[in-house]
Specification:
Layout (H helix, E strand, L loop, with lengths): L1 H18 L3 H7 L51 H26 L1 H6 L13 H29 L9 H30 L2 H31 L4 H27 L5 H32 L1
């Protein structure tokens, strides 16, 4: 029995040696294989598909679109807070005047053309009418100031008025107010010298009515100029036309009041030159002069 156990162990050992892999065979199988590179100079233009890949110098280059050069920012009354507050104030003046005194506004046509000596007792002005008239005249001066700013800037491009727009608009509004006060003083003086109290009041009523209506008509024109600067030339022409028409209506009423005989025509011509034409021209020249001072 011991011999049998020994034979069995020998067989087991022999079997283990027979199934093992030879060392020289393992060494031969683990030698790394060498693969020569197929693309030594890199991949060709087309790999795996038929589409030709363009070189970098053949690709399209993005160009700057036409007329895309940045423009310098120019401050205008539309972008100025102070000026737009004046426009808003004018709108409030108009709204309050129409709400509280629409009957007074309805009398514009009567005051512009009527030369009746005897007035109705109810036609006498009241405190409310004076407040409405003040609001409407203030609106007219503001609209004339903005229109005058546009005119000076358009006809005098050498003057840089975009630095402080509100300062220029405020000064030009003051010019319009000074012109109004000067004309009112002249009309009172002329009426006191050449007419009676009733005729003077009729004349002044025509002046107030034409000035108030002028401001109402200028409001949409000035607003269009602010929103659409490309319409500047045509809107300035409309503004000048409205002012001229208002003056013509007022002058015609004055002629009907003061004309008595042929000799009065000479005084009327002198009145036209000294009161209606010269102050307006001097006001524009003074406005341009003040703008030059404010610029420096």
């Amino acid at each position: 029995m011991p011999n049998a156990h020994h034979i069995s162990n020998a067989t087991t050992v022999q079997t283990a040696h027979t199934d093992s892999v030879a060392k020289d065979s393992v060494a031969h199988d683990t030698v790394p294989a060498y693969y020569a590179p197929k693309y030594l100079t890199g991949f060709p233009d087309s790999i795996g598909n038929d589409m030709h890949i363009k070189q970098l110098d053949q690709l399209p280059v993005m160009t700057v679109p036409a007329e895309s050069k940045p423009q310098s920012y120019e401050n205008t009354p539309l972008h100025d807070t102070g000026t737009m507050l004046l426009v808003l104030l004018s709108f409030i003046f108009i709204a309050i005047s129409y709400k509280n005194g629409y009957l007074y506004i309805r009398k514009f046509m009567h005051n512009m053309f009527s030369v009746r000596e005897r007035q109705n007792l109810f036609d006498d002005p009241t405190a409310s009418d004076a407040q409405i008239l003040t609001a409407l005249i203030a609106n007219t001066c503001i609209m004339e100031g903005i229109a005058l700013y546009m005119a000076v800037a358009y006809f005098n491009p050498a003057i840089d008025m975009s630095v402080n727009v509100f300062k220029f608009v405020g000064v030009l509004t003051g010019v319009a107010l000074v012109l109004y006060m000067f004309q009112l003083l002249l009309y009172n003086t002329v009426g006191y010298v050449f007419s009676d109290k009733n005729s003077l009041q009729l004349w002044l009523d025509g002046f107030f009515a034409t000035q108030s209506l002028l401001g109402l008509l200028l409001f949409p024109v000035v607003f269009i100029m602010l929103l659409y600067p490309e319409t500047m030339e045509s809107m300035l022409f409309c503004s000048a036309l409205l002012y001229i028409l208002a003056r013509i209506v007022f002058i015609c009423k004055g002629f009907r009041i003061f004309y008595n005989n042929l000799s009065s025509c000479l005084y009327f011509i002198l009145y036209l030159c000294s009161v209606e034409i010269v102050p307006v021209i001097l006001s524009y020249i003074g406005a341009v002069f003040l703008c030059n001072i404010l610029q420096s």
